[in-house]
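User: Okay, second chain of the day. Same drill as before: sequence in, structure tokens out.
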Amino acid sequence: MVILEEEVELPNEGEERLTGQGLEDMSENGGDEEPHDEEVVITGMDDLLNYDMKSLSTEAAMKFQFSNREVGFEFYNLYAMVKGFAARKNKILRNKKGEVVQQSFVYFREGFRKVVARGSRKRKKQAEQRCGCLANFRVHVHIATSRWYVTKFDDDHNHELLSERHVGRLALHRRLREGDVMQLNGMRNAGIGVTGVYNLIASQSGGFDRVPFTKMHLHNQIGKQRRQLKSDVENAILYLKDLRKKDLAMFWRHHANEDGKLELLFWADGISQKNYEVFGDVVAFDATYGKNKYQYPFVIFSGLNNHNQTTVFSCAIIANESEETYVWLLERFLEEMRGKFPTFVITDGHLSMKNAITTVFPSAHHRLCAWHLLQNATRNIKIPGFTQQFKRCMLVDYEVGEFKHKWESVVSKFGLEDNEWVMEHYENRKMWAVAHIRGCFFAGFRTTSRCESLHSEIKKFIHSRYNLSDFLKHFHRCLNFMRFREEEAELSSVVGKAPLETPFKLLEKSAASVYTPSIFEKFRGVIVKAFLVYVSGRRSTSTFKIFTVSKFQTPSKEWHVSFYPPTPMLKCSCQRMESIGLPCEHIIAVMVILGMHEIPPSLVLHRWTKRARDVIECYAADVSGNWGSVNMARHAVLLNGCREMCKLAGDSVEDFTSTRHLITTHTERLKEKKKDNTVHDNIDENNQSVPLRNPDRAKRAYGGASTSGTKGNRRRKTTCSVCKTPGHNKASCRLKTRIHDMAQELYGGDTQSFSEA
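Assistant: Same drill. Structure tokens below.
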């Protein structure tokens, strides 16, 4: 006894679901036919490609036996493509055990469309495709061999078959193959969108008409892959865990609210931590927006490397910019960086940032971005000319007393003695005025413009509607590209010699051998400026000499350079060396007078030298994750390299000792990480038992005319084209529905007769 039933599964996208038509007899013999004596076993597509489907006869096809019914369908679909039509799965037959023993395949236009009352239907009817073609193909399983043999093959059609040009465009013949899916995933991992993927495949295939699938197939495949994965947040955490398999120093922390929705995510990989060990004296702290579909702010901690390039120390995605959020971020930053505080921090002046830095980094010197200050001055003090005067007070290198006099003069000139904004910023003058910041090392930072340029670089890799997991993947692509440029800069500092362009060839040569090419270019600019100054006087004391340096154009302006002969050490009153780490033109002029042809060790800041990154080598040698296996031979080589580095850079014995201590400490740290691999298996800090959930997706801000303002700017209301009433369109018009109801009553659904009447 067998049971007939309809099958609802479809072989691919675009097939039509079977409707409730009457069941037909599956075979004249009730499905009990025996397989033909001369059998041809087909196990897959490779066997099918050996046959010429155009010349294949029905008698030859009846001898085929398939390893399973899916192979049988592949045969009939391939046969249909060659002949000029498309096939779909139809009905199946089951035995008492519920096992499928018979399968029918039919022409995709088989049967007729059911007549359904229109009622309140709003969607327009599609074109009729069913034509009642009876062509079909049926296979039955052989119990003994478990093979599927052909029991019926009817190839008679009641319609014209399609040409080769059109048959390939049928939906049932256009689907993604395994290779297409791999190519799609590879291109998406490279940041190429669906439209770009489709256009590229069309170009490779020789035209859009030769692509065996549509763009919708790509979108459906991406959606299918996403549905097979976990939640977005869990996928993001899983991605960070996968990174840790290659990088044992990978660190992340996350925090969720009571409902399990992610609010905070902080991460930093091993290379970022190593860069902070060397270049973490100055940290720029900035937040940008619109980098993910949740519209969560993206926070970056960045700095400068020895090639004057922006380097990323750590990143975070946060739900809000409250003071508690920034305190949490800075505490996680210190946790991963083993409690090493930055010396100087520059931000855009956000109040929550400022309070958090005061709380977590109390010893750090906080500087405000000059560009943001000028914008605030323009918005708060709407007096023409004030912003320009404020800019001079902020950026000109006045003495402290001179700055105070200039500030009082500007305030009095514009009548701002009682202005709250002016008084507040004068109280915070040590955070923005060069006169009060002189001597503090900010590595040349005056604004967060480097952060802005970093944001523009990130935009090339990240789309604003990326989910969290895609955001992390593509951001690390951006990070890898930045590090690739660092390696290129490192190579250029090793290969080739910079040309000497000034008359002080020996001094230039000495600087070129120590500094990286980008820093050397800055130093050469200082040498050029040295031609504009001269030594106007000198005097000696028991321990040092003081040289007075003036400028040719403004001889009244003087600087004082102190020279300590035994060291030799030079210091200038402008404190440019202490501020940017490069000797000023005043010191260069004194060096020329003293006949010095090499830069003294006291004027070489280690972070700008070619060997600055050598310290990183001790824990960057094993990228594969062998962090705990730093052998003693390599350790000794690195210490010798540091010793030579200190000689070149002019560092003292104390500097070498501190460098050696840094290497030893970090080696022990990596050994501890090797012993305990679970140290960074992060969990939600507050809700360990609550599963992580995705944040609420931000609503897209669609464009369009404004609905507020003057009458001319208001959005025009929609007017129905049937009843001419505003507020709805013809698809939802009730009058149109009543008209169709009248047509049904008067003409029995013959709307054509109604229109003629």
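The chain has five domains: 3-173, 178-228, 232-483, 517-608, 715-756.

User: Thanks, on to the next one.
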